[in-house]
Amino acid sequence: NRFIAPKNLWFMHCDAQPKLKMWEDDSEWTLFQGGHTGYQRLNPPVEVVRTLVLNKTMHAIGWEDVLMPSALHSMRVPLQLALCVRLDQRGGNWMRLVVDEEPFVMEWSPEENWKVDIEEGAVAPSYGILRPSVRLVWVRVHGSSSSLRICLYPGDLPNPTLRQTLFRKIEAASHKNFAILQSHFKVTQDT
Q1: Could you please report the per-residue DSSP string of 16-37?
Q2: Helices (H), the chain
């Protein structure tokens, strides 16, 4: 967002309008899909869409970030970890995080298009207090993929079945939203 005036630090132009595309909730899954208009001033303009699925029974979450169009822009996706999270082990497209001695696995895809930088970040537990913490940053290394899928779930080692379940649910949500948009477009065209 842009400041309204150089000396007015408390008011900004409303450049990033939220866009809710889909919300569904039942006893097993919560699904969200939305974005914002914050990158519409880029040349060419970029639309950001995030799809998030939460499986309440498996205590697992997955999300996908998509930028359209993305060919001309670099893409970095940061994730600031809380102070209590420790990075324990790392593989090709996964890592184990530990919180209060409880292990969690984080996986991402497509592996060949993304590298993860582990950086020093900071967390402010209260106003005026800054503590060092780990920040993960996914950086696109090949321009071909405009999407990044990440999942996080309890466990010591990667669980391909759980990862596929989460990623399939994300894909189904994206296709469902596309079908809704096509249906809306057809109705609009017919009237």
Answers
A1: --EEEEEEEE-SSEEEEEEEES
A2: 160-190
The b/e string for 96-108 (b: 16+ C-beta within 10 A; e otherwise) is: bbeeeeeebbbbb
DSSP state of 81: P
Does pTM top 0.90 for this prediction?
no
The Cα–Cα gap between 104 and 174 comes to: 26
Q: Which two tokens stand for residue 10?
A: 């408390």
Asked if 114 and 72 touch (Cβ cutoff 8 Å), the reply is no
> Taking every pair of C-alpha atoms in the chain, what is the biggest distance, in angstroms?
60
State pLDDT tens for residues 38-54: 888 888 888 889 999 99
Q: Say how many residues make up the chain.
A: 191
SS3 state of residue 70: coil
> Is 60 within 8 Å of 87 (Cβ atoms)?
no
State whether residue 69 is helix, strand or coil: coil
Tens of pLDDT, residue by residue over 63-77, are 999 887 666 677 889
